[in-house]
Amino acid sequence: MRLHVGCAMWTLASWRGRLIPHPLPPGERLRAYASWCDAVEGNTTFYATPSVETVASWAEQTSPDFRFLPKLPKAVTHEHRLTGGDEEMRAFLAAMEPLGPRAHALWVQLPASFGPGDLGALAAFLRRLPRSHRPAVEVRHRAFFEDDRAGRMLERVLAAADAEWVPFDTVTMFVAPPTSDAERDAWLRKPRLPRRSRALTDRPIVRYLGRDDVDRTVEGWRHWVDVTAAWLREGRSPTVFVHTPDNADALTLARRFHDEVRAVVPEVEPLPEPVPAEPPTLF
């Protein structure tokens, strides 16, 4: 029984020397991260498609059961709104090929303006995707969360493609006013949407945003501990990504989330032991 957890990135300045060994060459940073977590979001591919050689390095640094969630290029999802960008999509799929089974799902993050009237474009796009790739779709239009008919229509489109609906839970972020610069930035930029926790497939994916205060973050994820435990008991294989506005403690928080679920469902496999940030001393 496997629960995968991860963060929004695999390298962050505030982790270096404190959680992750430093200095490390670029070709070793993901390997160090993978000793902490067994999944990671692929946000950078939204802005630029990496070379095949770079992606091959990612694969070399991780085990076959590590999970990547590479995000489709901005040109495909936001500029062409799924009705063009074929060249960019072909280049993206070719670049991701070295990941093999590590490419857990292709992350189709859609703009907030992509609403129920655009579902035809989404359905056509999902039909064109190679069956070797499983899509995971994140929507941000409020109608999908507040209008039952719109939500059911989206679910039908996703079910036809065996695609998952990825919730981005920001409820904890907006419970109380921000108290740090990073929280103030998140307050302005992150979507304010109702929480959604219904899985459509056997591999649900959750993105959870807490606060820079650890206790608030942990309190806010209680719902997801219960939901994740229930999914595991149903035979599903979930992946949960833990964010905070500054992400300074995201690595330790992701492991803590895993520990809390494992306390409820002891059959869940443990995570690996992290690589020490500092070499052992003689005394």
UniProtKB/TrEMBL annotation:
Alphabetical list of Pfam families matching this protein: DUF72
Coiled coil: none
Name this polypeptide is given: DUF72 domain-containing protein
Gene source species: Actinomadura logoneensis
